[in-house]
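Lecture 7 notes: from sequence to structure.

We start with a single chain of 262 residues. Read the sequence below before looking at the structure.
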Amino acid sequence: MFFLGVDVGSLSCDAVIIDDDQKIIAWAVIPTGARNIESIERVCANVLEQAKISKEELGATIATGYGRDRVAGRLASVTEITCHARGIQALLPGTEVLVDIGGQDSKVMRLNGSGQVLEFAMNDKCAAGTGRFLQAMARALEIDVADLGSLDEGACGDLTLSSMCTVFAESEVVSLIAEGVEVSEIVHGLHRAIASRTQALVKRVAPDVGTRKIAMSGGVARNTGVVKALAAVLENEILCPRVPDITGALGAALIARERTTS
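Now the structure, written as tokens:
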């Protein structure tokens, strides 16, 4: 039997299929776009094709993410916090603090080391420091958002943006470009600002984070510059799954299996 997890985020729509042995059979990540129902249909068709199975062979589907209630045929909808916690336990067992920076919000969870959430903090009132924020900054710098991490590698300055408001930060980036500041230093400053903002969220749920096993999930975890900057301010190593985007979808698939076979 196979189980499907679908994570419908503001920037990406992710899906994972696992088998009875909890092995990942197929996964996909596509942009959500303006029509998330179409994106859901496409990502589900993608993983079913990869897995070479039909929809009828699925034992159950669990949906998560802000668009979870739009997934047709789901057994249930489960919060991102629960699904990311379950997914990171499978990918990086023993994780005690999980940072999930998504497309439009940031979440930090303190876990018991077995994938159960003990406490969490969430910033969903502002897009500062999220995937959308990084997209806006990349546009201002006229670069691809996927290149931000590599551009940071050669920077070593102490520049930090004075504002994390997307509108003001974009104006500040434009001014820094006009002043002749190197793009790599601006990117480094952006990442340091995101790390500082995220650090405050982490400290709310795990004041002793320096002694904890910490991991990151979500698409922003692909940005090595953000990961490095956050590790520096938290004074701890940050572990990232090989494909951090699918952590929530994997957790949803695992929950689908548990609810069907238990």
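Residues 183-205 form the longest helix (23 residues). Keep this in mind for problem set 3.
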